Amino acid sequence: MNFKKPAGFGIRFVASIIDFLIISSIFGIVFYMINGNYSIEQTEEFTFQALYTLYLTITPILWGGYVIGKKICKVKIKRFNDDEKPTILNMIIREVVGKYIIVLATFGISVLVSELMVILREDKRAIHDFISGTYVNKE
């Protein structure tokens, strides 16, 4: 496969941090408006995790491969075979299976393996990229 500019670990990490900060802030504001209090520990609850995974799954489909952090960092998710935007199936496999279920099943070891893959592989693809048929490209 001919990769234009695969995004490396650093830029992907920064994009993830930006996403988490923005989405957890929005969630915190809404939660505060509903309940009158907020704690950072609420980001560990199932409701936040489910909503955050839903955001990471749906937004790239609607926004052509971007989530907020990736848009800011000018990287996007593309399908591996044809360089097009990801489909709903690509994103469900990538986010729900690759980044949630496999991480739980391996007690987090798959996160470390994926990080090493992005750092060491020429195509910069992680486990969730392989199973979903995607990669992350720099603009």
UniProtKB/TrEMBL annotation:
Sequence ranges assigned to domain RDD in this UniProt record: 7-133
Subcellular localization(s) per the UniProt record: Cell membrane
Keyword Phosphoprotein: no
Record-annotated membrane-spanning stretches: 12-34, 46-69, 100-120
Gene Ontology CC terms, in alphabetical order: plasma membrane
Pfam families associated with the record: RDD
Tagged with keyword Cytoplasm: no
Membrane topology value: Multi-pass membrane protein
Main location: membrane
Key words, A-Z: Cell membrane, Membrane, Transmembrane, Transmembrane helix
PANTHER family named in the record: LMO1584 PROTEIN (PTHR36115:SF9), PROLINE-RICH ANTIGEN HOMOLOG-RELATED (PTHR36115)
Name used for this protein in its record: RDD family protein
Organism of derivation: Solibacillus isronensis B3W22
Organism classification: Bacteria, Bacillati, Bacillota, Bacilli, Bacillales
